[in-house]
Amino acid sequence: MSVELPSPLLWLLTLLLGLCLGSFMNVVITRVPVMLMRRWRAEARAALELPAEETSTFNLLTPSSMCPRCEYPITWRDKLPLVGYVLCRGRCAQCQTRISPQYPLIELAGAGLTVAVVAIHGASLASLMLIGVCLALLALAVIDFRTQLLPDAITLPLLWAGLGYHLWFQPLWLANAVIGAMAGYLVLWGFYWLFKLLTGKEGMGYGDFKLLAALGAWLGWPFLPLLLILSAGLGAIIGLTMQFAMPRLRGMPIPFGPFLAMAGWIAILFDSHLMSLYQGLLL
Ligand SMILES: [Zn+2]
Known about the structure:
Low-confidence stretches: none
Distance between the termini: 34 Å
Helix content: 55-70%
Mean pLDDT: 91
Bound molecules: zinc ion
Order of helices and strands: HHHHHHHHHHH
Shape: globular
Largest sheet: none
Number of helices: 11
């Protein structure tokens, strides 16, 4: 099913959708790690039989956005994607604290990914699902970069949704997707234990296995070697460049999730081109 709209209107709507989704990803990126920490703290206290702490409600909707320094509520005008940041010149209206450029950058990235999916795959329900994956990968990449966490609350629904996508839209590829999810998890799980047995160190986390399983579900097992080569290549190039350019990062662990997410974007956007290139190399 494809949507037929006059071209300028379609692109305007796509751009607005991308900016709004990017804005929502900012909420996910900043709040989900805090929600997880609060839950783990509550569980740890319960396990230690300590009295529960008094805490206020904190989720994706409550409390409404405020300045992290002076807690001045952010008005609806300043919440408008990109426009809000430009109107308030990147500062809190009350205390003039600088607002992180992460917010407009994530909104721009959301818009860029949304426009790219529609430009390459057309405007359809299937494309809407692909936009959802690309934005979930954006949230996961930034959360992993900032906190070294890949929350199950995002990776696991992404995996199940990938299997559902093939069941509805590409049933012929469903078996490849199921094998992709299984193999994606098991390959990294195998690497992890081999590395741990040989060196006694942990090279990556369980979140990475679940993320590759989710990508395997969305793309199918034939893409797994390509995803691993792409993410390892990107990790080596970007990781080394960053450590070279910013000496303070030397010796710090580099999360693998952002590079898996980048490889996922490339594979989702250019799947048919990549597959034919890849088959050309193999045959
Ligand atoms: Zn403020």
